[in-house]
Design goal:
The protein is of the alpha/beta class. The protein has two domains: about 220 residues, no CATH class; about 260 residues, tm_1862 like domain (pyruvate-formate lyase- activating enzyme, Alpha-Beta Horseshoe). About 40% of the residues lie in helices and about 15% in strands. It is built from 20 helices and 18 strands. Strands 8-11-12-13-14-15 form a six-stranded parallel beta sheet, with helices on both faces. Helix 14 links the parallel strand 12 and strand 13. It is globular. About 45% of the residues are buried.
């Protein structure tokens, strides 16, 4: 079986989902091959920089090899200005290379100027004309060779982001052209979200043999006619070129659970899609990570859970993994204990991502976040004292928020400017099929049968345009906020932020 990670996603680490599937297949004696077509495809495009006429493109082409090399070296992550220039210059090469295809392409972006990834007819069109994809030359050569040499019976593609959609279907169409007998399977987060639509009707029946929702190991083994062997399976990273990702060392992504242990936040896509919470025992996670560290010698562990469970944080605090780590955590009673935070730091925790969302208690309560602002404030202060960086997520334009509440979020941010390491500012999108949407007047958000969101009439007149103006004209211009935003690693954002924390703490 051939497993493919399609472009485009941030090329800083290998895809954890395919590593889990590879482990499950090989544990059941099913041979498989993984191709990270995202990492390989981006590098293939960058190997022949364009002969651009503008100054920026000429500079980016001239320094391309140096910039790519520096992204694998720690010294670049000591200077956000040099880092930003290097990343943006690499990104510029991709932008210019894709212009003849009518595509806005980058290290984490793929947007067609005329077509939409949430219109099934446009995705089917991408499959019918794969040569119109900027990665065509790469996957034509790569996949033709693999199919000729290994003759796989099945090809599985993991589609997680809209930025991967067009390339995924271009690859599907190309495989259909060269090997019509191959069975094609699509899975991944985006497929799961589409199939969670209560009105779902499969528009890809003539292209794809199987669609898989949720964790793919069990369904994939069933499709292959195999009953899963008993016992736990460890992710398998053997097929990935671990030193080729854009990072100063191998980042080990590991998911200790599916779903979210809280699972109560209003308007949460996971809640709307009904994803159950299924954690691995903390002892099992620790054993897996110990084995993977011995095999792969990672520089950093990325816990990719929706929220790291309290039990796992306790386990790490008691028995450190031995490698720096980071991930998403909830504001919790655990983190209001300064001694516990210091133990987390000793365990190797370099950064926690925190979904605080709002600086107004009424808004937090309406979102059912399950904590109060005093707790959030104490957690931020404790993590600062423990020297654990924070990457704070704020959400504007939710149905209960008004301009006054948004102002309070600004006040909270300014008050905690010394404790907040990085900021992610987002404007609220209404999940299309959640129960919470039923009480609001909604309309089409994106034109397309695969859209995951709905526009809505804000009950208090705090619409997207007003929110955007507030963020641009007031929030981001506040000197305290601006200073935080300047620390943001462009494009790679939270994936590269821990490297800046690690280098800063080495000084």
């Amino acid at each position: 079986m051939l497993l493919i990670h399609p472009p485009v996603a941030k090329p800083g680490e290998p895809p954890a989902g395919l590593a889990k599937i590879a482990g499950a297949l090989r544990n059941n004696n099913i041979p498989c091959r993984i191709v990270d077509a995202n990492q390989e495809g981006l590098i293939a495009l960058l190997k022949s920089p364009p002969a651009g006429s503008d100054t920026w493109t000429k500079r980016a082409a001239r320094h391309l090899s140096t910039n790519l090399a520096s992204l694998n070296q720690w010294h670049l992550y000591r200077d956000i200005s040099r880092y930003s220039r290097a990343v943006k210059d690499v990104n510029r090469i991709l932008e210019v290379k894709a212009q003849p295809y009518g595509v806005r392409l980058g290290l984490a972006n793929y947007q067609h100027k005329k077509l939409s990834p949430v219109r099934s007819k446009d995705l089917i069109g991408a499959a019918e004309a794969p040569e119109k994809n900027p990665f065509y030359d790469y996957f034509k050569n790569r996949l033709t060779k693999i199919c000729e040499e290994e003759n796989p019976s099945f090809v599985g593609l993991s589609l997680n982001y809209l930025s991967q959609a067009f390339s995924t279907f271009a690859i599907v169409g190309f495989i259909r052209q060269i090997s019509p007998g191959i069975k094609i399977i699509l899975g991944g987060g985006l497929i799961t979200s589409w199939m969670s639509n209560p009105n779902w009707r499969n528009p890809f029946e003539n292209l794809v043999d199987h669609l898989v929702a949720g964790p793919g190991e069990g369904p994939l083994l069933s499709i292959l006619g195999t009953k899963a062997a008993k016992g736990h399976v460890i992710p398998d990273y053997d097929d990935f070129l671990l030193d080729s990702y854009m990072a100063p060392g191998f980042v080990l992504p590991y998911s200790a659970s599916t779903g979210c242990y809280w699972n109560r936040c209003a308007f949460c896509p996971e809640k709307a899609e009904g994803r159950p919470y299924k954690p691995l025992p903390a002892e099992r996670v620790q054993a897996d990570i110990e084995i993977l560290i011995e095999r792969r010698n990672p520089t950093l562990i990325h816990l990719s859970d929706s929220a790291i469970s309290p039990a796992l944080m306790e386990a790490f605090a008691d028995v450190p993994p031995g490698v720096p780590w980071y991930g998403f955590a909830r504001i919790s009673k655990q983190l209001t204990d300064l001694d516990f935070c210091r133990n987390l730091k000793r365990s190797g925790c370099v950064m926690l991502k925190l979904g605080i969302e709002s600086g107004d208690q009424r808004v937090l309560d309406s979102l059912e976040k399950g904590f109060d602002l005093e707790e959030a404030s104490l957690v931020l202060k404790n993590l600062k004292k423990a020297r654990i960086a924070t990457y704070v997520y704020l959400l504007f334009g939710t149905p209960e928020e008004t301009f006054d509440e948004a102002r309070r979020t600004l006040e909270f941010t300014v008050q905690h400017r010394r404790e907040i390491g990085f900021l992610n500012l987002a404007i609220f999108n209404m999940p299309a099929y959640g129960q919470d949407a039923n009480r609001l007047e909604t309309s089409e958000f994106y034109k397309g049968d695969l859209s995951l969101y709905r526009s809505f009439t804000h009950p208090k007149g705090w619409g997207r345009q007003q929110v955007r103006q507030f963020l641009d004209r007031e929030f981001k211009r506040n000197p305290s906020v601006s200073a935080i935003l300047k620390r943001e690693p462009p494009i790679f954002t939270s994936n590269h932020a821990p490297f800046f924390v690690m280098t800063a703490q080495q000084k």
